[in-house]
Amino acid sequence: MSDFPEEPIYEQLARVGKALASPVRLRLLDVLDQRERTVEELAQAAGVPLKNTSAQLQQLRAAHLVTGRKEGARVYYRVADERVSRFLAELRGFAHDRLADLRDAVRARLGSLEGVTAGELAARLADPGTVVVDVRPVTDFAAGHVPGAISLPLAELRERLDELPRQARIVAYCGGPYCAVSSQAVRLLGEHGYDARTLDGGYLGWRHRPAGE
Amino acid sequence: MSDFPEEPIYEQLARVGKALASPVRLRLLDVLDQRERTVEELAQAAGVPLKNTSAQLQQLRAAHLVTGRKEGARVYYRVADERVSRFLAELRGFAHDRLADLRDAVRARLGSLEGVTAGELAARLADPGTVVVDVRPVTDFAAGHVPGAISLPLAELRERLDELPRQARIVAYCGGPYCAVSSQAVRLLGEHGYDARTLDGGYLGWRHRPAGE
DNA sequence: GGAGTATTCTAAGATTCCTTAGAATCCTAG
DNA sequence: CTAGGATTCTAAGGAATCTTAGAATACTCC
Questions:
Q1: Do B16 and A65 touch (CB under 8 A)?
Q2: Which of A18, A66, B23, B134 could join B149 via S-S bond, C-beta 3.0 to 4.6 A?
Q3: Distance (Å, rounded) from C-alpha A79 to C-alpha A81?
Q4: Residue B39 CA to C5 C1' — how many Å?
């Protein structure tokens, strides 16, 4: 092993890097960033086997990126604090800027729909012609949402289309920036003649939008 | 291997994390962040064996964090762009906030001298009673320095003490935030009766100081 | 072209990390 | 106090990474 005088310091810095070095952990962080969850909910939402989820959570906890709260037989995890959440947003932004392969992978999953940025949405919130649709499960909606948004999970969208005014300009969003649900919703709405667009970055992107209302 | 639908995306994100997961690579990045260097200079400055340096540079290049420029028989590496540099600063700040062990490791290496922040220094630059001393090698000084600083490498400090006015309030800095040279300089100056302090974060910290001159 | 130098490529042993099965722990409910 | 469920701990095989020796490449200078 190499060693130089500053190694113990960089060893510590590398702990953060290591925590962010696995796709599974990054996925878990993104899911947790939206709201607190139990290990099982988390494993479910992230699509990762339970045991693996638990093991990775230990590492994230050791790196002080998440904290657990025990309530009865369950442990609720969440991102340790706002600083972690901001840093994750920073990481996503950075990687998106620098890695063309990341942009390709995103496009492969979400399609190349033109989205609305959080800043644009903020500016349009006052406009009554804009209708904001939250397609996440109602639990997520309840934990926080864009002001004025209506909760309309994708599963119910088809049957509840009549709740949306025909001539509205719709902005649909889901949870993380890589969530495909709002893209599906927008496609469905488009087929029914609506003017609908996704919100870039999803709800997380909204929460971390650059300064100003 | 786990897999969930967004895996290819998180795989890409993890490339950045992986690049930052090794103490050696982080050290190289910090050294490169100060100025462009050849592989050998870099290995020398970082205290890492040459072959290992070269191998790690390949990885950093694959992650688009550094770029190389070939000039004759030599390759000059540098941090890819300002965005990378800012992100590294962000990482250091984040880790420093969250990991007590990191703060301990820094204290173990640098001692617990009270430093001056970059913001404080900026505010004091106009004050003629403050003398800023750059203790890095002259090559580094030439590549960029705090305005008004005088170049006085540690090796020459003892003999050139008379260049410093007795009653000056001295601020000494070196390169990275974990460089011990300025701490030594401050200790030496203290023994000779000077009022001397280090600059927190070194020259890198200065370059990334929060907005405002 | 040939000697000499800087850097990278190839390859392989040592090490660390990922994943997951099975046992253990800690909790609630009855 | 016992049954049953949620989560973590322990352990081990397999995969990926780190480190570094040796060969190969690419350049300069003569």
A1: no
A2: B134
A3: 6
A4: 13
Find the Å distance, CA of residue A114 to C1' of nucleotide C18. 37
Task: Kindly state whether residues B59 and B122 are assigned to the same domain.
Answer: no
Can you tell me the distance from the alpha carbon of A63 to that of A19, in angstroms, rounded to the nearest whole number?
7
Tell me the residue range of the domain where A186 lies: 108-207
B38: CB within 7 A of chain C nucleic strand: yes
Instruction: Check if B174 is active-site.
Output: yes
Within-domain flag for B212: no
Does the CB of A23 have a partner CB in chain B at under 8 Å?
yes
Residues B122 and B173 occupy one common structural domain: yes
Cβ distance A27 to B8 less than 8 Å, yes or no, reads no
Same domain, B128 and B62: no
Q: How does residue A111 score in pLDDT terms, banded at 50, 70 and 90?
A: confident
Average per-residue pLDDT for chain A = 91
A50 touches strand C (CB under 7 A): no
CB contact under 8 A, A4 and B52: no
Nearest to A204 by CA among A46, A59, A93, A96: A93
Q: CB contacts < 8 Å between A and B, how many?
A: 174
CB pair distance less than 8 Å for A46 and B4: yes
In terms of phi and psi (left: phi > 0; alpha: psi -120 to 50; beta: otherwise), the region of B151 is beta
Q: Is the pLDDT at B213 greater than 50, yes or no?
A: no
In a domain, B119, yes or no: yes
Tokens of B190: 């203290």
Domain end call among B85, B118, B133:
B85
Cα distance between the two ends of chain A: 50
Q: Residue B39 to residues B46, B49, B70, B75, B170: CA-CA distances in angstroms?
A: 10, 10, 11, 7, 34
Q: CATH no. for residue B20?
A: 1.10.10.10
Is residue A95 included in any domain, yes or no? Answer: no
pLDDT digit string, tens, across residues B134-169: 999 998 999 899 999 999 999 999 899 988 998 899
Q: Would you say residue A52 lies in a domain?
A: yes
Residues 166-205 of A with CB under 8 A from B: 178, 180
3-state helix, strand, coil in chain A (%, to 5): 50, 15, 35
The answer to whether A139 faces chain B, any CB pair under 8 Å, is no
How many independent structural domains does chain B possess? Answer: 2
